[in-house]
């Protein structure tokens, strides 16, 4: 019989309720009496009947319980009281720091103001939960308190335990407290020196045995110096990966470390190694995906600052998945080769990173039902301008093209091209561009881009370089120009497949509409340079998009598609330079969104789940970045909207844009108006100063319709294709500062396009089960062995690592429905008289294995377990299954042996029967023929006589 859990309150107690109550009483009795001092606070809640703060979902049913009574009790009074208590606590907290457990608040939100809303404005994962600066209404929240360290200093003195003390220089040093006097403590430092330190500068240190633990969760004291020292210790031992609860931390080694070879793949696959590693995460996700119990789609979200190692980590994850899902078709090899192509065309050197991704990518790897890779799909985020060196591919082709290719393209050295020689460096230490070009050619072959297309790709690249070399001559007093008819324009025209005259005309004149007539207007020097650069940019960006399309076609997921996939997100890392422009703004905006995703999954949705399931939970504060996202995204007054508006406004300049920002946004605490064209934004990772110089131009992405016409008339196929992808001139482009608009191609502005792509990515990721990997850059010099504590701590703080550990310690890392839990571990129960509904089975399993009460919480629909518990159940399951298999083996062996013996006996009997019969028959025949012979001989003898 089905029992609805929403039976009205106040009816008699169900057997389930009785059971949960007795469980609670037992828990209370077993509550530890004297916890050691200053250990991290544990939640006071124990496994208990979920409180009836809110009614259960109407469709919630418990199978098999036939007493027909609900599990809820408590009543409305409790609910109201709880809400009031929650509201009181809300008031105590500021608006910026949002506690773990922030609950819904009605917010105005249009469909495009969040990537998490679908067309109807609903998201199944978000129903009942709206984000951000809203406080919990829940009654059972408790703000997690850090251990009262001050009270325990005496304990540390008595036991001579080590402490961390912050020296006046800011460094943390280990020592032992000798005595205290008022607010001061006298310390013996680990180097033998004595020091006098304010007690406020002391923090408890972890015992030696915890040095270099795999998971920060294991630290008794979770504080800045302990975490830093733990990661430092591991880093110095080349253990670059560590865990922080559900997070994987990867500290960039800036050198090759021998932890990625095939042996490691095998070891992680066979589960003989369990130390933190990207392989371990990939293995867990792969297994979960193949089991398909919770979800079929998983994702790795790799985040961290520029140069922290995201792209490398993504590649190692792909490498592991390729090893696991490698099929006979070799598609996994193709997938790995795409990295080479995308990095060549999409990465560039910056001051932070020699191989910085200037685009964001999400790669979805699809698997068949048998676990083999059956395809992949790449989505990219707008490609942004390169840094101090242009995109790698330009230097690679200049260094590595064969002599025949050079002759065909009229290719020169990198230093001969204006677009390349204006930058600070032409070569990167330790990088052989020529060799990389050879590898790129191989990769293009593997991706099945035919030789003809490859030649066109190289022609487009070289055309871009030659376009940059085109120069102009001023021809009148109004600064109008004409193009110099030199080798640059001739070669560029030849490579594009158009006539030199047409190209020269398009670069020096612009057609505009005057009533019904079209008139040609001469361009000034600056306008001509701008349109030339816009054309070069357009060709390069179109080429990149075309390459991604080709890759996707080559990796297309075939018929084997089973819905199983693992996506890897690798986007440009947070950037803050001395001078930050539109590119940094877009990059940092993307990182804000990613941070929001992180917050939602590790803080907000978790809390929502606890609450919906009636579980007590412990509150942990975390830094919410919704305010910053509002500053950027809000309509109509947000940074992007104002940029869009100003970009469409005649005569607007970067300065008027900056003034507009100051006028409208200064009330937002994340905005800081600066002098002139500058403004500042408080990002989650720190404040960044932006210079609006070039913002409008870069956002407009304006390309003359003259060029679209020119490209459509080219003899080569690629430029024609690029032109065809550009929207037609059906709409009028608003006038711009240089009045080039009336016939120009009405492209979506870069900011709007960027936001759209970002939302699409985030929306897609929302359906996946995420694994977060936080990459840390240990120094700014890109050198191995240097671990700058301040820099590392700043990144740990930005990534919310400490908060995640706190939540994981106070929360329950594993959540599994009673149904799944009962199905998987129910057979471990020996008793047969247990009600067969999943909740009862779950509780019976917990009792059967004496799981400590603080290690779990029983929810309405799910069981919440602390770290390690599910592992223990899995071990027990494996052990029992192994035993069962052993018994079955012996039994079957015995049965088969007996059968064999019987069969053998039967066969022998049968054989002896048949042989006897045969012999007898044979004997009969021989004896008869013998007697015949004897008779014949006797007759013959008689006849002779
Ligand atoms: N696991 C690793 N082993 C060895 N070297 C690494 C590792 N991770 C990163 N590196 C080194 O650090 C450099 C920067 O890493 P990577 O390009 O992955 O950074 P990123 O976070 O993707 O930066 P951006 O956001 O600028 O693209 C790499 O070129 C490589 O030299």
UniProtKB/TrEMBL annotation:
GO terms (molecular function) for this protein are: actin filament binding; ATP binding; calmodulin binding; microfilament motor activity
Disordered: where is this region? Answer: 1-129
InterPro entries from the UniProt entry: IQ_motif_EF-hand-BS, Kinesin_motor_dom_sf, MYO1-3_N_SH3, Myosin_head_motor_dom-like, MYSc_Myo8, P-loop_NTPase, SH3_Myosin
Keyword field contains Nucleotide-binding: yes
Q: Where in this protein does the record put region Actin-binding?
A: 758-780
- Positions of the Myosin motor domain: 211-878
* Binding residues for ATP: 304-311
Query: Polar residues: which segments have biased composition?
Result: 1-14
Q: What is this protein called?
A: Myosin-2
BP-aspect Gene Ontology terms: actin filament organization; actin filament-based movement
Q: Which residues form the Myosin N-terminal SH3-like domain?
A: 158-207
Identify the species of origin: Tripterygium wilfordii (Thunder God vine)
Sorted keywords for this record are: Actin-binding, ATP-binding, Calmodulin-binding, Coiled coil, Motor protein, Myosin, Nucleotide-binding, Repeat
Family assignment?
A: Belongs to the TRAFAC class myosin-kinesin ATPase superfamily. Myosin family. Plant myosin class VIII subfamily.
Composition bias of kind Basic and acidic residues appears in 24-34, 80-94
Question: Which GO cellular component terms are attached?
Answer: cytoplasm; membrane; myosin complex
An example Pfam family from this entry, by short name, is: SH3_VIII-1_N
């Amino acid at each position: 019989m089905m029992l609805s859990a929403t039976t009205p309150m106040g009816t008699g107690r169900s057997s389930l309720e009785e059971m949960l109550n007795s469980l609670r009483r037992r828990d209370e009795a077993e509550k530890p009496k004297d916890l050691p001092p200053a250990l991290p606070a544990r939640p006071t809640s124990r496994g208990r009947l979920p409180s009836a703060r809110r009614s259960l979902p109407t469709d919630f049913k418990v199978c098999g319980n036939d007493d027909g009574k609900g599990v809820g009790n408590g009543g409305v009074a409790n609910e109201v009281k709880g809400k009031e208590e929650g509201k009181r606590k809300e008031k105590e907290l500021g608006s910026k720091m949002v506690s773990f457990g922030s609950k819904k608040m009605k917010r105005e939100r249009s469909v495009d103001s969040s990537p998490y809303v679908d067309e109807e404005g609903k998201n199944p994962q978000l129903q009942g939960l709206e984000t951000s600066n809203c406080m919990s209404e829940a009654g059972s929240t408790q703000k997690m308190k850090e251990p009262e360290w001050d009270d325990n200093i005496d304990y540390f003195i008595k036991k001579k335990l080590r402490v961390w003390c912050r020296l006046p220089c800011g460094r943390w040093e280990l020592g032992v407290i000798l005595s205290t006097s008022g607010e001061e403590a006298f310390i013996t430092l680990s180097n033998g020196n004595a020091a006098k330190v304010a007690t406020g500068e002391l923090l408890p240190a972890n015992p030696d045995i915890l040095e270099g633990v795999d998971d920060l969760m294991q630290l008794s004291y979770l504080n800045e110096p302990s975490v830093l020292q733990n990661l430092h210790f591991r880093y110095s031992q080349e253990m670059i990966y560590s865990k922080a609860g559900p997070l994987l931390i990867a500290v960039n080694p800036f050198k090759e470390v021998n932890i990625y070879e095939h042996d490691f793949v095998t070891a992680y696959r066979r589960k003989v190694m369990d130390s933190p590693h990207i392989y371990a995460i990939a293995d867990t996700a792969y297994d979960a995906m193949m089991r398909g119990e919770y979800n079929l789609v998983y994702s790795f979200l790799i985040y961290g600052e520029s140069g922290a190692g995201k792209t490398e980590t993504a590649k190692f994850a792909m490498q592991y998945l390729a090893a696991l899902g490698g099929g006979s078709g070799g598609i996994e090899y193709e997938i790995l080769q795409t990295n080479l192509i995308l990095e060549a065309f999409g990465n560039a050197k910056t001051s932070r990173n020699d191989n910085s991704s200037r685009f964001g990518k999400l790669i979805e790897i699809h698997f068949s039902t048998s676990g083999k890779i059956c395809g992949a799909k790449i989505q990219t985020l707008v490609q942004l301008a390169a840094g101090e060196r242009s995109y790698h591919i330009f230097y690679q082709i200049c260094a590595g093209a064969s002599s025949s290719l050079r002759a065909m393209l009229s290719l020169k050295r990198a230093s001969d091209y204006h677009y390349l020689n204006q930058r600070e460096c032409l070569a990167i230490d330790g990088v052989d561009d020529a060799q990389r070009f050879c590898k790129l050619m191989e990769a293009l072959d593997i991706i099945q881009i035919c030789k003809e297309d490859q030649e066109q790709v190289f022609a487009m690249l070289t055309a871009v370089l030659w376009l940059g070399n085109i120069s102009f001559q001023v021809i009148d007093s109004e600064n109008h120009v004409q193009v110099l008819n030199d080798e640059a324009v001739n070669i560029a025209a030849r490579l594009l497949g158009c006539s030199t005259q047409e190209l020269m005309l398009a670069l020096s004149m612009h057609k505009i509409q005057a009533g019904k007539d079209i008139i040609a207007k001469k361009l000034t020097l600056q306008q001509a340079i701008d349109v030339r650069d816009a054309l070069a940019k357009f060709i390069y960006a179109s080429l990149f998009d075309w390459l991604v399309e080709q890759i996707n076609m080559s990796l297309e997921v075939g018929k084997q598609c089973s819905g199983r996939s693992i996506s890897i997100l690798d986007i440009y890392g947070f950037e803050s330079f001395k001078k930050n422009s539109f590119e940094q703004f877009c990059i940092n905006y993307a990182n804000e969104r990613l941070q929001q995703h992180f917050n939602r999954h590790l803080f907000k949705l978790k809390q929502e789940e606890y609450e919906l399931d009636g579980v007590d939970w412990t509150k942990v504060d975390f830094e919410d970045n919704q305010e910053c996202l509002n500053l950027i995204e809000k309509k109509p007054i947000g940074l992007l909207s104002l940029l869009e508006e100003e970009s469409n406004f005649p005569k607007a300049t970067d300065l008027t844009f900056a003034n507009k920002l100051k006028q409208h946004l200064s009330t937002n605490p994340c905005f800081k108006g600066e002098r002139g064209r500058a403004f500042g934004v408080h990002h989650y990772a720190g404040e960044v100063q932006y210079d609006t110089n070039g913002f409008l131009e870069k956002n407009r992405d304006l390309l003359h319709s003259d060029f679209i016409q020119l490209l459509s008339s080219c003899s080569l196929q690629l430029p024609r294709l690029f032109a065809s992808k550009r929207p037609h001139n059906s709409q009028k482009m608003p006038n711009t500062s240089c009045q080039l608009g009336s016939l120009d191609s009405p492209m979506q502005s870069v900011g709007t396009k960027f936001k759209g792509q970002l939302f699409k990515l985030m929306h897609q990721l929302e359906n996946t089960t995420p694994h977060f990997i936080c990459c840390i850059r240990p120094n700014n010099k890109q050198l191995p062995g240097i671990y700058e504590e301040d820099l590392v701590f700043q990144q740990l703080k930005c990534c919310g690592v400490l908060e995640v550990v706190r939540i994981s310690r106070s929360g329950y890392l594993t959540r599994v429905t009673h149904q799944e839990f009962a199905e998987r571990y129910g057979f471990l129960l020996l008793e047969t008289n247990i009600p067969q509904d999943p909740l009862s089975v779950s509780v019976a399993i917990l009792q059967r294995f004496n799981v400590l009460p603080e290690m779990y919480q029983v929810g309405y629909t799910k069981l919440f377990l602390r770290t390690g518990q599910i592992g223990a159940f899995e071990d027990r399951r494996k052990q029992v299954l192994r035993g069962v298999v052993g018994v079955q083996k012996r039994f079957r062996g015995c049965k088969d042996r007996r059968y064999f013996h019987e069969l053998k006996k039967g066969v022998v009997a049968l054989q002896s029967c048949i042989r006897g019969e045969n012999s007898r028959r044979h004997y009969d025949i021989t004896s008869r023929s013998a007697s015949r012979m004897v008779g014949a001989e006797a007759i013959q003898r008689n006849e002779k006589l």
